[in-house]
Amino acid sequence: FTFIHNDIQLSTNSSQYRTIMDIVNNLLLYVEPKKEGANNKLRKLRLKIQLANNLPVLQKNIRHLLERVRSTLAELRRLEREIYYFSRTNNNNLA
What we know:
The protein is mainly alpha-helical. The chain has a domain at about 45-95. It has 3 helices and 2 strands; from the N terminus they run ββααα. Strands 1-2 form a two-stranded antiparallel ribbon. A hairpin with a 2-residue loop joins β1 (about 1-5) and β2 (about 10). The longest helix has about 40 residues, at about 55-95. The radius of gyration is 29 Å and the shape is flat. Keywords: Coiled coil.
């Protein structure tokens, strides 16, 4: 990264750039630790409430996705068996 401004020229590698950006972000986006902890607790509580309200819907969606995964895996295994038997038959015919 190269920064040029009037008489100032600053060049850094990626590690130095990340460090500088981390410091700048921490200075600009500073939040009191107590307030940040309270915000995290509030966010977790909201998520728990949202999940509790949507639990039946979530369970139904999860079951549906699991069924899709299982059927896709079964289809994949069936195709793998077909490929195996086809290649085995093909090799026997060549020999």
